[in-house]
Amino acid sequence: MASGAYLKPWRDSQRAHIFIVGFLANFGYGTLSFTLNYAMAVEGPMNSFLYQVLRMFMLGYIFVPLTFWFHSKFKSRNLLFLIQLAGLGLFFIDRSSGLINGLAVTLAFAPFLALHNYRFAKAQSRDNRGNETALISFLVAMSYSIGLFLGGFALQFGYYYAAVIGGSLCTMIGSYFLYQPLTGRNNVSKVKSLIGINKPSTRISFFSGLFNVMADGGMPIWMHALGISPLGAGINMSLRPMIGLLLTPVAGWLIQKKGFRAGQLGGAALILGWALMAGAPYMPWILSLGLGVISIGSNLLNPMEVGRWYKRRSSAGIIAREMVIATGRMHSYTLGILVCAFMPATYPLMGLLFGGLFILGTRPHRKGLSRPTLTLPRDIPYTTQ
Fold this sequence. Notes:
mainly alpha; single chain; globular; 77% helix
């Protein structure tokens, strides 16, 4: 089991290339994300709201789809690099503007996000997909969390622009080395056909979006409301994936054997983690424990959620997932920013609420949810090759 989880996914040179480049770029995005999330929280709840919701909307509904259109239309690595460079330049216009920073981070990160997901979806194997998906999900979480620590360190000691420039450059390098010209066209009507309230993949991605933004986008704001320093917040958030390192083989095995049912175990762990977090305003030491338990749940949930879209091996599946998960994120953050601003002690209760909604909304015995999810389907005609 350990060999299949840790060693076998690296044996293909193309996958290894994606893992390594993705680690660097997600490290940069973690640095950039924490720096902006915490900095916007300092500017006030309205500015933070504009930054986060604009970023989530543009990333999921506009710029990831546009990236695939751009790839199939212009086939220019250097032009894509210039677009990301323009995003970096926007950071220097107004440091306190949530609107400008939201546009800037989207331009800097969206091309990498689209390329990274698409390249891995095409490179996954038939016989070890569960372990490969679990490993890439862990590598993303690990590199992102190291970036969170660096972002907290940079803010603590006044290196805001160093973090912004370094993080952006890492995502730009990632896009440059993952670039691959695409042929064909991206059929928007086919993307729409993949999304529906009765589709299992839609439901799990929507509820995952509710959870993810609370632990990533909302957590620095909540920690700021509790009076935790940037460095302290970065340290706490960066510790989460360490537990996941030991659980990667278990997560891959559960996804391979149990399919969608593994997500219910992940949902239960997330509820337990948020229950522990409820004591953080009164017992700060419990914060790291709660985040660790949340990491266990995420390590089960995230690979299964994204793997249902990866199996399509298409740009349409990647675009559809980003739209669905962005919808969940925007709803969660809109409520979360109000709670952080006016009732921060009750923020963990949101986690408990969304945990219950997740378990109810993704019950395995509902139609379609208990079917095996790791068998590759026949080639889809609209797949961009």
